[in-house]
Write a structure and sequence with these properties.
The complex is a heterodimer of chains A (75) and B (149).
Chain A (H helix, E strand, L loop, with lengths): L2 H6 L5 E2 L10 E2 L10 H7 L3 H21 L7
Antiparallel strand pairs in A: 1-2
Chain B lengths: L5 E5 L8 E2 L4 E3 L3 H13 L9 E2 L5 E7 L2 E9 L4 E7 L13 H15 L4 E6 L1 H6 L10 H5 L1
Antiparallel strand pairs in B: 1-7, 1-8, 2-3, 4-5, 5-6, 6-7
Classes of the chains: A mainly alpha (75), B alpha+beta (149).
């Protein structure tokens, strides 16, 4: 339910469940989940759309570099 | 620096103040605990204590100042345990400040004050690393309702 949030957020360890989960909340540790390291928390915490835009921007920059320095292009 | 900035305790002295409909939690529990912490923080000399703010599944945050520097406290009621986090904010330590850690000084004042309050049962403090490596989950206590059924 909160799996990704638990793995990427160092300040989130669990939360209460709606009434149907009476008596016990959701605890990532109780479920045996591990948190990502700092790099994994950063990368996996970025939404997919943002990753797509960032990757596209890097490709765009590469394309611009090719236009500015055409002599560096592969023959 | 590793400080014991996390606390795990049993909060059954505080009524469950969750607001929910048939399907979803509309307001996560812990507002009453955050309000109790506001009083404790005022008692240990903290200032500019703001009203608790709802932070979704994180629970509740209280922003305040200690020695004129910003800090915050997070209350996450999971059940059967409740977690407290007393953490730094931007500018808590000061860029060129080289004295004793203001975060450590805050914890030195706050920890005994919370320990003295009987509503915070089975209270234990942990570092961030311990939170990821130590089993801090509390056992579920059987209630009288459970025993009757």
């Amino acid at each position: 339910m909160y799996e990704l949030h638990y793995q990427v957020d160092p300040n989130f360890y669990g939360a209460k469940l709606p009434r149907r989960g009476k008596g016990q909340g959701w605890s990532g540790q109780r479920l045996g989940l591990n948190k990502y390291g700092p790099d994994g928390q950063f990368w996996n915490g970025i939404p997919g759309v943002t990753k797509g835009i960032a990757t596209g921007a890097i490709v765009d920059i590469g394309d611009e570099v090719n236009h500015i320095f055409p002599q560096d292009q592969l023959q | 620096m590793t400080f014991k900035k996390w606390a795990v305790f049993r909060a059954d002295a505080f009524p469950d103040d969750t607001i929910e409909d048939d399907l979803n939690i509309l307001q996560f529990p812990g507002k009453n605990i955050a309000e109790a912490l506001c009083e404790i923080l005022a008692g240990v000399g903290c200032t500019d204590i703001e009203k608790p703010s709802h932070e979704g599944e994180h629970g509740w945050h209280v922003h305040f100042e200690s020695a004129g520097r910003p800090f915050y406290c997070q209350v996450s009621r999971i059940e059967p345990e409740t977690l407290l986090l007393f953490d730094k904010n931007y500018g808590s330590e000061g860029l060129f400040y080289r004295g004793p850690s203001r975060h450590a000084q805050l914890l030195e004042r706050v920890q005994p004050a919370i320990a003295q309050d009987p509503r915070f049962r089975e209270l234990t403090w942990y570092t961030q690393r311990e939170m990821d490596t130590v089993d801090w989950n509390l056992p579920v206590e059987e209630t009288t309702d459970d025993q009757a059924s």
